[in-house]
Amino acid sequence: MRRSDRRSRPARQRLGNVVAQKHEGSRMSGLRERLGRLRSESVSQQSQPPASLEEEKIADATDQEGESFAVPKAFRSIGVAQKETEFGSFLLRKIEYSFPYRHGTHELADLHGCSPFLQPIAFRQNKKDEVIAPEHLLFLDTETTGLGVGTGNVPFMIGFGYITETAFVVEQTLIRHPGEEKAMLSYLLGHMKNKSHLVTYNGRTFDWPVLTNRFILNGWRKSGADPGHIDFLHPSRALWRTTLPSCRLSTVEVERLGIQRGEDVPGSLAPALYFQYLSDGNPDHLHGVYTHNEKDILTLASLCVHFGLLLSGRNDAEIIEASESEELFRTASWLEQHGEAILAERLFDRLGEREVIGEGGWSLALAARFKRSGQYARALPLWKKASEYAEAATAPKLDAHVELAMYFEHRDKRLDMALHYAEKALELALRRARLISDAKKRREEKEALQRRVARLREKISRASERKS
DNA sequence: ATAGACGTGCCTGTCAGATC
DNA sequence: GATCTGACAGGCACGTCTAT
Fold first, then answer.
1. For residues A65, A69, A74 and A77, what is the CA-based torsion angle, rounded to 10 degrees?
2. Is the peptide bond before A381 cis (omega within 30 degrees of 0)?
C-alpha cells in the first residue's frame, strides 16, 4: 500500500486506555485478585464478544480470498495481510515510499550516492575493504516483549527496510501467537540472503542477539559469519553525546534530522500493547506500534544519508555553518578516528579560527591534539584564549594556565612567562577552592601548583645567579 | 528490567630533560 | 654518570546509556 494515515482512533486515546489499565493493574494486591479479574474478563468476552471484530471476521471471509482470509478489517485498514510460507503463516504489511521521498531534512533517494561512504563505520568480519552497495543494506528494527536478550524475549514484530531503484520499501511482520514465529523468521532470512549489512540503532547489542537466539530456538544452526552491521548508536553518541540531552533515536531524529513524529507510541509501551492485543484480539492496539516501527526504520535510512554525507565531505559547509563548536570538534575527531584525516583537518582548521570560546572543553581538547602532533604554534592561541576565558569565569578551569606554564618552561624556555601562568593558575585554584567539595582533590591540586611555582622560582634564581 | 559498547578517570611504567 | 622530576601513553575499573 502507499503511505497514508488511516488510523481509526487517535493514538493518544489508545495510549490513555493502556496507561489507565496499567494503573488499575498496579492496585491489584494479590495473584488471586488478578486471576479473578482475568477470569471475569475472559467470561465477559465470551458472553459478549466485541461486535466489530466478529463482523470483521465474517466480512473478511466473504470479501477476501486466499492471503487475507481471517485478517480483521482493523489490520487490513493499515495494509496488513496474511503471508503464507512453508513454515506456516504470519501477518505482513508492506509500504513503498516512491522517490523522491524526504524524511526530515534528508532525501532517502540519496542513499544511492551515500552508502559507499559508510564503509569506515561498518563492521564486517573478514571483509574490511568491501564497498557498501545501497541495495545490499537491510534496515532493521524489532519490537519485542521485553529488553533482555535472553531466550524469554520474543520479537513479535520485525520491521525491515530496503532500497530499490525507485523507492524505499518498509516491510513489517507480526506474529499472532508463538507458533507463527518460525514462518516470520524464515521470511526475514529470505530477505537477508542478498544483503551484506544490517543497519540498526543499538542493534549490535539488542536486535541482532535477540534474533540470533530466536533462530537457534527455532532450529536454525549458525553457519558462517554474522552479517555485516552498521549500528548508528555509537556514531550518534560520538557526535552528539555532549550537545543533546540524550542520544535516543527519538531525540536524535528531532534535534538533528528535522523529523517530527507527532503522536507516537513510545517503544517502551510496545510490549504492553502487544499483550493487550493478545488478550482481547483487537488489532487497534497495534496501530501505534506499526507506526512507531515504520518511523524508526525511515529514521535509520535518514541517519544513513546523514552519516554518508558527513563521511563523503559533501556537506562540510553546512556542518561548519550549523554546528556549534563543541559539536564541530566532536565531528572532526570522529572523522579523524575513522581515517578521514583530510576532512577532519578541514573542520579542525575552521574551529581553530573561531573567536569565541565557551565553557565546553573543545578548545583545550583541540589544543591538546595540536600539542600531541607537535603543532605548538597552533595550540598556543587556543591556550591563550582559554586562559583569558578562565580568568573571567566564576568557576575557572586551570588546564590552559598549566599548559601555558609547561609550554613556556619546556618549549619556549621563557621562565618568567612560565612562572606568570603557574602563579595565575594557583590564584585561580584558590579562588575555585570554595566551589570544589572534594577536600582531598582541592588540596592536591593546590599543592601541585605550589610545587610548580616554587620550582620555577628556584630555577629562575639559579639562572640569574649563573648570569651574574 | 539486561547486557554490551564506549568514555572517563585513575594508576603505573617509561622516557626525556634538568641538575648536581 | 647518577639521580630526580615532569610529561605522557597504555591499561584497567567503573559508570553511563541504549534498545523493548
1. -30
2. no
A140: cell is: 532493521
Residue A160 CA to its chain's centroid (Å): 17
Rounded CA-CA distance A13/A249 in Å is: 24
A368 touches strand B (CB under 7 A): no
Element (H, E) at A95: strand A88-98
| Matching residue, cell 594556565 | A401
Domain residue spans of chain A: 11-312, 355-467
Give strand pairing partners of A169: A96, A162
For nucleotide C18, the protein residue with its alpha carbon nearest to C1' is A202
Q: Which helix (H) or strand (E) holds A108?
A: none
Cβ of A268 near strand B (distance < 7 A): yes
Give the distance, in angstroms, between residue A309 CA and nucleotide B7 C1': 26
Provide the grid cell at A230.
Answer: 552498521
Nucleotide nearest to A405 (CA to C1'): C6
> Among candidates A203, A235, A242, which has minimal Cα distance to A120?
A235
Give the domain A11-312 fold: Nucleotidyltransferase; domain 5 (3.30.420)
User: Residue A233's pLDDT is what?
Assistant: 95
Q: What is the pLDDT of residue A128?
A: 62
Element (H, E) at A231: strand A228-231
Cα A453 from Cα A424, distance rounded (Å):
10
* Residue A76 C-beta-side C-alpha neighbours within 13 Å: 17
Whose C1' is closest to the CA of A148: which nucleotide? Answer: B2
Q: How many CA atoms lie within 13 A of A65 on its CB side?
A: 0
| Mean pLDDT in consecutive groups of 10 residues from the start of chain A, 468 residues | 36 33 34 34 30 35 47 93 96 97 96 92 73 94 91 94 97 96 96 94 94 92 84 94 92 94 88 94 95 96 94 82 83 85 85 67 81 81 85 81 86 85 86 65 77 83 70
Q: Tell me the CA–C1' distance in angstroms for A233 and C18.
A: 8
SS3 letters across A44-111: HHHHCCCHHHHHHHHHHHHHCCHHHCCCCHHHHCCCEEEEEECCEEEEEEEEEEECCCEECCEEHHHH
Strand B bases with any atom < 7 A from protein Cβ? 1-7, 10, 17-20
Please give the DSSP secondary-structure letter assigned to residue A179. Answer: G
First to last CA, chain A: 92
Task: Name, in order, each residue with C-beta under 8 angstroms of A304's C-beta and a sequence gap of 6 or more.
Answer: A111, A114, A115, A118, A137, A139, A199, A230, A232
List of A residues 109-148 with CB within 7 A of strand C: 141-144, 146-147
